[in-house]
Amino acid sequence: MSTTLAIARREWRAQFASPLAWTVLAAMVALGAWLLLSGVESYGAQAARFAGRADAPGVTDLVVVPYFATLATLFVFVLPLLTMRSIVGERRDGTLPLLFAAGAGGRSIAVGKWLGALGAPAVLLLLLVLMPLSLGVGTTLDVGKIAVAALGLAALAGALCALGVLCSAWAQHPASAALAAMAAGTIGWIADAAARERGVTEGLIHWLALPGHLTAAMRGVLATVDLAYFALWVVLCLGLAALRLERLRETG
Amino acid sequence: MPPAPLIEAEGLSRRHGRREVLRGVSFTLAPDQVLGLLGVNGAGKSTLLRILAGVLAPDAGRLRIAGAELGADPRAARTRIGWLPERAPLYPELTVAESLVFAARLRGLGGAAARSAVERAVERCALGEVRNRLCGNLSRGFAQRAGLAQAIVHEPPVLLLDEPTAGLDPLQAQRFHELLATLKPGRAIVLSSHQLAEVQAGCDLAAVLHAGVLDSPAPPGDGRALSQRFMALALGSAA
């Protein structure tokens, strides 16, 4: 366990030592601010339509939830940039033998890398969630719904980080790890698109696709089946990454 | 009574696919001994060192490190091994001191124990002047020393060095060997090389590894005998 935590700590540090992580954080916060302001502007234009209605949707439904939904899509393309170096970077720097010699197996390296890789996305998520909370100064927010939606985003981020670690374990270059993770994330995102086009909203393909597992969270409902789905992603990706690392240990 | 050996290897074999990389390698090494492992490129030196380091499992054979059976008690055995691969495993974004702290933490040392282990390793490997320098900015000589410091940070009785002076200039290589001599007391050191002079000058025993077979370790002598052994084994079969 101490080995896993040591690996996670170093990974966390390495992320913040990289200018790329800061650039991604700054760009995403700027983009998030723009999305949120656009949402507020659009809400201002629509507010008159709902005036006087008892069941009128509030700022949370019309501004915050769509903002979170857009962020979820962006995460598919942004998080691979933060995880791409996690294992392929070790291979390129020739530092994997240090971990192997200390007795770290594939599983503890993969888990340590994943825990460490969550660092920058966690900071990013915190900043992006704090922004809509600032709307609470001028209006009433459904904080519970926002918290559950943020939890859904966090679960998605965890799954995408695990995918990033897996792709980094297989790739020969950080850029190809990022591209592979983006491609796999996109497939996971649009897997049920054709089925949805035909109006089919049930079945295995629908269950496998990522967006369906955020729907409940965006409505403020915490569904354990969705959390289990993201946990399954994490376990599967880290398991495959561990197998790859064991193979790398054998081949040197 | 002679001291108990720190390395006891018995019949170690390993295949890579169809190729038999190591064939029944056996030897023992006592404290205060440095074994020079000679062999041409591809002879199996790195594979043998990786097996001795516990990174690679042998297909057959037994290995005891300072009394701990590597197969039965890998955790105990690994704590007694320090391994410096051919390319020192250093993180370019960490300073020398930080990478030593990381290596200590990987070995389960924390807090004050890690700090004192790092100070000891810095002092032993004469890294004081570069302790706050990023590893990515170290010269090759200092990088090897920093790698060696990582390998000894947990005070292992067994030290494995894979071509440690490859790429060093003669002065850096000489300094590295002087450093190694200070680490020798109480330790068993295995050093791989393809330079006869290096093994002759710095090792108590030498053994030639060729086509996966290790001949019996023997004192390197005046160099001529060692050279003849090396030529006979390494080139004889090719002739």
Describe the protein in words.
The complex is a heterodimer of chains A (252) and B (239). Chain A has 252 residues and is mostly helical. Chain A has one domain (2-251). Chain A is 80% helix and 0% strand. Chain A contains 13 helices and no strands. Chain A has helices spanning 2-17, 19-50, 59-83, 88-93, 96-101, 106-117, 119-133, 143-170, 174-190, 193-197, 204-208, 212-218, 224-251. In chain A, α8 (143-170) runs antiparallel to α12 (212-218). Chain A is elongated and about 70 Å long. The mean pLDDT of chain A is 90. Chain B is an alpha/beta fold. Chain B has 2 domains: 1-80 and 157-239, Rossmann fold (3-Layer(aba) Sandwich); 90-155, no CATH class. Helices cover 35% and strands 24% of the residues of chain B. Chain B is built from 8 helices and 10 strands. Chain B has a 6-stranded mixed sheet, with helices on both faces. In chain B, α4 (111-124) packs across α5. Chain B is globular, with a radius of gyration of 18 Å. At the A-B interface, α1 and α5 of A face α2 and α3 of B.
